[in-house]
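Input sequence (154 aa), recorded before submission:
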Amino acid sequence: MSRAFVKEMDGDGSEDIPELAISPHRNLVTPAGLAHIVETLRRLDGELATARAAEDRGTVARVERDLRYWSSRRSTAEVVDPVARTETVRFGCTVELQTGAGERVRFTIVGEDESDPGHGRISYVSPLAVSMIGAAAGDEIEFRGGAASIASIE
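Predicted structure, token format:
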């Protein structure tokens, strides 16, 4: 086989690391979300220094890519302060839903980088959050193939 068709690899692990995708949506964040971004940047700066000292080019490339992503997210972050009391669902609210079966489920609407559905934090651009934003207690929304009512908004 001709060597022209073989990609030479030097084994450093830095070959073409793809950039992390930046969302086209506004970068709304809670104050905790902004703190998470700042902490992530601090941690990555430390990882970069360690990787450079070890001359680990693969890790340097990965961390530099991650720093580009998180630096962009920091520069575009729009902090949305929590509202003490609201009558309708909005960014930063915690919403409790009650299903027809009597199950109660709580979600907090947060920024995309803060989202962790397994822990009840959903992105404001998720279909569930979009269906809840602007709704009031007692309103019904589609949830898990059925209907749920908004029991409370905090």
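Checked by second reader. The chain is about 30% helix and 20% strand.
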